Amino acid sequence: MTKNLNNKTSSVQGGEIYGDFTSSFDSDIRMYSEDIDVSIAYSNMLSKIGVLTLDETNLINSALEDIRNEIKNGTFKWDKKLEDIHLNIENSMYDKIGEVAGKLHFGRSRNDQVATDSRLYFIRKIDFLNTLIIDFLQELVKLSEKNISIMLPGYTHLQKGQPILISHNLMSYFSIISRDLRRFLNARNNLDNMPLGSGAFAGVTIPIDREYLASELGFSNISSNSIDGVSSRDHILDILYSCSSIMINLSRISEELIIWNSEEFDFVNIPDEFTTGSSIMPQKRNPDYLELIRGKTGHSLGQLVNLATSLKGLTFTYNRDLQEDRKGAMDSIEIVTQSLEVIKNLFSKISFNEEKMIDSANKSNILATDFADYLANKKIPYREAYKIIKDISLNLKGKYIHELSLDELRQFSKLFEKDALDISLRNSIENRNSTGGTSTNSVRNQIIEAKNFLKKNKNAK
Ligand code: ARG
């Protein structure tokens, strides 16, 4: 049986002179399995409403399963002259089962097919990606617990500001990445809306059972407007924004680790397998993996702007520009997936140089705020206390403020008493016991909250 779509419906194709320019192969191929799932659900539905006989449905479904296997094994014969995967699969079905293949397209269009395929594809990808986010969040909690009391200088403007716990810093990563999980869950929720049954854009004349289709395909909702169903792509913008956000955040984490890993800081040891050498400088171990996370971040952002720019000029219903909707998001999800795998494994092997961090904190006036707080606690205005400490810091004569004797301190204020000598990195940290602060107690509470969040979201969809 060679009567195929290629000969039969040349009007469906057109534009094959520049086949590569007009075809959507590169993105379609990645969602072949979803395309076949959608076709099988559709043929089952047509049988349910009596448009296809059971025999016809069985024939169609087994041809579709054969095609699925051929694509999987790489033996499927793609006809590049046919625009996309939908026409290729239909064409191959003609070769396998003849005219009955042509019955499957009754009431459906490639417009609702592609919109449904890509939603399914992205839902499946995001479900996997969310498990990776959870894994990374779990790793952060584990690392925080393991290093709960390790101190380091905290920085603002990349200048030493106040001491903090490394676990506090790690839990700040948890906070921001947990919001990214929410963003992806929200994107998933918007994807979970089945457009199949929209036809070309105006609906269909046969009594299709959309609820049945949705339940066969695992969608919780069906789109309520057929024009919107085939022409909206804001759900892909949601994906790209979620990808952009998590990449920006992973990039910031990477940047912090790169700085901490530099010889000047030496706060953190990045496992060797996440570094590479230089082809000329034998001493180098460069943090390339982290740099690449930072470097790949622009992709999602670029694709977000790319799609938004395409969409802003489109009338409703289908325009061929929409064929460009998914490749950027598919690549972005791939990049986020890889970045999460890298960073999670890197964090599982990272270690901190406590001595270096404490030494760095001690070689600074990082306790200046604590000295000012000490004086303000003696009931003078904080601004006055601040001024006294500022004066001290300008007259240190080579010492740090915490190295001054009581006599030296009292030259600036008689409010200083013996307990001023107790001001230390550890006390500074433990005194910041406000909710969300850096004390061990507060960080432990943050960890409890984080564990509850993880428990709640473990299987979240
Ligand atoms: N190849 C198209 C895409 O990926 C499928 C829909 C084509 N529809 C059309 N009316 N040409 O978006």
**Level-1 CATH class name of the largest domain:** Mainly Alpha
Number of helical elements: 19
Task: Provide the gyration radius in Å.
Answer: 30 Å
Helix content: 55-70%
H/E series: HHHHHHHEEHEHEHHEHHEHHHHHH
Question: Mean pLDDT, as a whole number?
Answer: 95
What's the CATH topology name of the largest domain? Fumarase C, Chain A, domain 2
Bound molecules: arginine
Give the strand content: under 5%
What is the spatial order of strands in the main beta sheet? 1-2
Compute the number of strand runs: 6
- Total domain count: 3
Shape field: elongated
What does this structure look like?
This protein is mainly alpha-helical and 461 residues long. It folds into three domains: 5-106, Fumarase C, Chain B, domain 1, CATH 1.10.275.10; 111-197 and 225-359, Fumarase C, Chain A, domain 2 (Up-down Bundle), CATH 1.20.200; 368-423, Fumarase/aspartase (C-terminal domain) (Ribonucleotide Reductase Protein R1, domain 1). The chain contains 19 helices and six strands. It has helices spanning 5-8, 19-22, 25-28, 32-48, 54-73, 85-97, 110-146, 166-191, 210-217, 226-231, 234-261, 288-312, 327-349, 354-362, 368-376, 382-394, 406-410, 425-431, 440-457, and strands at residues 151-156, 159-165, 193-194, 221-222, 268-269, 351-352. It starts with a helix and ends with a helix. The model has no long low-confidence stretch (mean pLDDT 95). The structure holds arginine. The site of arginine has 10 residues, from α7.
